[in-house]
Design a protein that fits this description.
CATH superfamily: Ribonuclease Inhibitor
Strand order of the largest sheet: 1-2-3-4-5-6
Structural class: alpha/beta
Number of domains: 1
CATH class: Alpha Beta
Radius of gyration: 16 Å
Order of helices and strands: HEEHEEEEHH
CATH topology: Leucine-rich repeat, LRR (right-handed beta-alpha superhelix)
Helix content: 25-40%
Shape: globular
Largest sheet: 6 strands, mixed
Distance between the termini: 53 Å
């Protein structure tokens, strides 16, 4: 997708790339539009995100709903300004451990994903605004705890 046509889809600070049959994300082109802090990639054909996607640290809202994502990049937690993330209706089973670094995340929808049982239970149903806010809080805490446990096990192994 040419950069010019990307800018045509920019309205205020929102870049709407929904319903474009995208199977890849034009990260370099998106990085050239730092004004776009809200990105809508919903209803495309995405099965994965490029490893450099988390370099788009200017993003505060991302809608990736209704794609076919099976995983997120391991360094997804580098999106440190992210506040709102919609992952409804994908094929995600797990989230990368770095997700706990999304400390500004206030809203998360993981509904309609084949999540691993523990994660599904923690994420909840997200049927309204409050449940999606709770999902963000609970999932971040869960992954922070998982990361702490991993670090503890690494330290224990180093001492052996």
């Amino acid at each position: 997708m040419p950069k010019e046509s990307l800018k045509d889809k920019l309205e205020g600070n929102e870049l709407d790339l929904s319903l474009n049959n995208l199977d890849t994300v034009p990260v370099k082109d998106l990085a050239a539009i730092p004004k776009a802090t809200r990105l809508d990639l919903s209803c495309n054909q995405l099965t994965s995100l490029p490893d450099n996607f988390p370099s788009l640290t200017h993003l505060v809202k991302i809608d990736l709903s209704k794609n076919r994502l099976t995983e997120l990049p391991e360094n997804f937690g580098n999106l440190q300004n992210l506040q709102h993330l919609d992952l409804l209706g994908n094929q995600l089973v797990l989230l990368p451990i770095s997700f706990y670094k999304l400390t500004k995340l206030k809203w998360l929808d993981l509904k309609d994903n084949p999540l691993q049982a523990d994660l599904r239970k923690i994420a909840g149903d997200c049927l309204d605004e409050n449940q999606c806010k709770k999902c963000a809080t609970q999932v971040l805490k869960y992954l922070r705890d998982c990361n702490s446990e991993l670090e503890r096990l690494k330290q224990k192994k180093l001492k052996e």
